[in-house]
User: Which sequence fits this backbone?
């Protein structure tokens, strides 16, 4: 293919450089989580091949050392290939193979680069193909990020919402349906619903984990396992599980694991459901806190920064607004992942890089937004008891409490009279003398 110029300071080689030159499409690169998981595969593969007698320890150990250094983030700047590249992710796999081989050669000879004594394909990529490595790394990096960041953030948010549910359990307020006044409830009940949404979101995400835990390693080019040892995948995956503490297993069917990305699509769907939940919760909280004098104002959220460049004293619900934007981004990511999932043409999905990028970004965004939401907004919410009580007394829906005693039609007539005359339900009910004052008080306060 001719000569290609590689920067002298680079650890990558000609294949990476060609890819960098061929795909000057965006400034998007694989996240560190993906790169570090890919390096983990190379580390475990070298050790597995050494154990199987396929790779000399004098080569395997420098490969492992170089891979661990990549896992530690020492060479993040060397991964230069754009996300929008060959659909198998081969360019990024070779970027890793070249960096690891280059560093291993430096360990052995004092000179980085080259293909001897460590060769990027023959040694670093031994027993592997981009076609089984990249789908596996999608699963490994996603499950690690979910376990290490997203689930802890969601548990923190659920805990914050549950704390508010308990704190507000005795505060009566007006319920609302169709954006209209409804019957009374407790503010704590409202927050308990939010907490349950997050709890269910965790369950949905956890539900996808057994499919994410299946790895395509061992399938090589098309799923048939050509050019790999029959015990290679088992050994590598056991090492990956031991390193991460996560229950990774070899795919039950390698042809499914490489030609489809249904687990990624399923996981993204669970993330989208979480995004929808966050939209509902964030919107409710910013509406309930609207005001401070001319909105609903049943709760207060922490004041974090000036809200206007022109209106002094204005403070906006900036954290809920940030959460809404994250949720919108995640829903867009899901659409991209859905489209990518349809690109499993015959024996290989050819939109792996963009699927991986969007999946990892969605997980990371949701983890960060959930934690910030809990810490900077939910934990600092306070209730306005007087406002909550005042809305109940003014509400026409309060008449619903009288229905069991006087029937729907009489209750509707009382509500209409109260509305027409600008009076409360309590005032009209007492005027009409439909029940004793004590009975009315009991029914309306229940």
Assistant:
């Amino acid at each position: 293919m001719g000569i290609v110029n590689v920067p002298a300071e680079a650890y990558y080689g000609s294949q990476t450089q060609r890819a960098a030159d061929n795909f000057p499409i965006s400034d998007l690169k694989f996240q560190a989580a993906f790169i570090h998981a890919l390096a983990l595969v190379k580390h475990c593969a070298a050790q597995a091949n050494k154990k199987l007698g396929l790779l000399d320890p004098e080569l395997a150990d420098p490969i492992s050392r170089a891979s661990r250094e990549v896992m530690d983030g020492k060479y993040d700047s060397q991964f230069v290939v754009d996300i929008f590249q060959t659909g198998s992710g081969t360019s990024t796999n070779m970027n890793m193979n070249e960096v690891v081989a280059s560093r291993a050669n430096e360990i052995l000879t004092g000179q980085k680069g080259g293909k001897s004594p460590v060769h990027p394909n023959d040694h670093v990529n031994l027993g592997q193909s981009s076609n089984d490595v990249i789908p596996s790394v999608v699963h490994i990096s996603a499950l690690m990020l979910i376990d290490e960041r997203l689930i802890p953030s969601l548990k923190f948010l659920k805990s914050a919402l549950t704390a508010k549910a308990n704190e507000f359990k005795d505060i009566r307020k007006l319920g609302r349906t169709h954006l209209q006044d409804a019957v009374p409830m407790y503010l704590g009940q409202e927050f308990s619903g939010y907490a349950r949404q997050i709890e269910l979101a965790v369950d949905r995400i956890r539900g996808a984990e057994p499919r994410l835990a299946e790895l395509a390693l061992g399938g090589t080019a098309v799923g048939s396992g050509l050019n790999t040892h029959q015990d290679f995948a088992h050994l590598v995956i056991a090492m990956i599980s031991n390193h991460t503490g996560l229950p990774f297993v070899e795919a039950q069917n390698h042809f499914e694991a490489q030609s489809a990305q249904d687990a990624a699509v399923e996981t993204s769907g669970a993330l989208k459901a979480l995004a929808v939940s966050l939209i509902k919760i964030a919107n409710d909280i910013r509406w309930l806190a609207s005001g401070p004098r001319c909105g609903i104002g049943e709760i207060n959220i922490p004041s974090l920064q000036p809200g206007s460049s022109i209106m002094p004293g204005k403070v906006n619900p900036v954290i809920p607004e940030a959460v809404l934007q994250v949720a919108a981004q995640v829903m867009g990511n899901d659409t991209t992942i859905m489209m990518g999932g349809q690109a499993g043409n015959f024996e290989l999905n050819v939109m792996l890089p963009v699927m991986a990028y969007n999946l990892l970004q969605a997980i990371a965004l949701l983890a960060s937004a959930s934690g910030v939401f809990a810490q900077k907004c939910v934990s600092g919410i306070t209730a306005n008891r007087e406002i909550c009580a005042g809305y109940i007394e003014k509400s026409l829906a309060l008449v619903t409490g009288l229905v069991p005693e006087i029937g729907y039609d009489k209750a509707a007539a009382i509500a209409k009279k109260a509305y027409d005359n600008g009076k409360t339900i309590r005032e009209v009910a007492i005027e009409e003398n439909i029940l004793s004052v004590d009975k009315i008080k009991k029914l309306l306060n229940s």
The chain has a mean pLDDT of 97. The chain has 17 helices and eight strands. The chain has three domains: 14-126, 137-212+261-385, 395-444. Residues 137-212+261-385 form a domain with the Fumarase C; Chain A, domain 2 fold (CATH 1.20.200.10).
